[in-house]
Amino acid sequence: MAEFDLVIIGAGPGGLKAAETAAKYSQKSVLVIDEQPGPGGQIWRRQKAGVSGFERAKKAGAEFWFSTSVVSSHEKSLQVLRSGELVEIEWNRLILATGARELFLPFPGWTLPGVMGVGGLQAAMKDGVDLSGKRVVLAGTGPLLIAVGAMLARSGVQIEAIIEQVSEDRVREFGLKTVRGLDKALQAANYLKALRGVPRHHDSWVRSVESSEQGLLVQTAGGISHEIECDFLGVGYGLVPNTELAESLYC
User: Among 116, 133, 149, 151, which has the minimal tally of Cβ within 10 Å of its Cβ?
Assistant: First the structure.
């Protein structure tokens, strides 16, 4: 049994900032729980921003339990699994910073080895997996395709194509609305520079994936159909919030 005034679930950007602020301006106990072995969440995984946010929160007095998962939740208490042991935590206040996950829409062949989420590819790179020289196709919709594609390309990955479900006009309209500040404009320019020469197919989506002697054979549908060979296929259709814990607490 453990007791804390404030418990925060999630050590991503939101959870770290909440922990730093609460610990700094309150004399009461603050605990942060995360399933991952370290701070940063999906956004700041193994990055300086996550480490510095963690250090500031810890310096302010927050306590962290990593590699800890919530098993069940009740009014004013949680049961968590930590180091193989079940621990009950009583809290006075609870903050949920559980983030989001990718929306993955299934298609024939979506369970084959080498088919994964776009964010999954990004997380693998952040975790130190060497994909240099590998052929990758990114498909789905949203700005994450461009951001991850640029990161992969800078790491020596061969981006075979980006398959975007939305039309080119809608992508351009979204880009003009988003890239208004100088920082965002420079960031977008760097992304596009890294992806120079990469084919981008709009009004297109993955119809099916098959195994081949060379790896994966991706078949697309939409405006123009293509067959593209690759080693990895990353697919993502935006993000949806992780609401399971909130729902169990009747939020």
Answer: 133
Query: What local confidence, expressed as pLDDT, does residue 128 receive?
Result: 81
Amino acid at 47: Q
Per the structure block, which two tokens stand in for 222? Answer: 């939409």
Largest CA distance in the chain: 62
Q: Are 166 and 202 in contact (CB under 8 A)?
A: yes
- CA count, 13 A, side-chain hemisphere, 225: 5
pLDDT reading at 251 higher than 90: no
What's the CA dihedral at 41, 107, 216, 195 to 10 degrees?
A: -50
Token pair for 236:
């993502």
Whole-number Cα distances in Å, 167 to 55, 58, 193, 222: 44, 46, 21, 10
**pLDDT for residue 115 is more than 90:** yes
Each residue's pLDDT tens digit, 94-109: 999 999 888 888 999 9
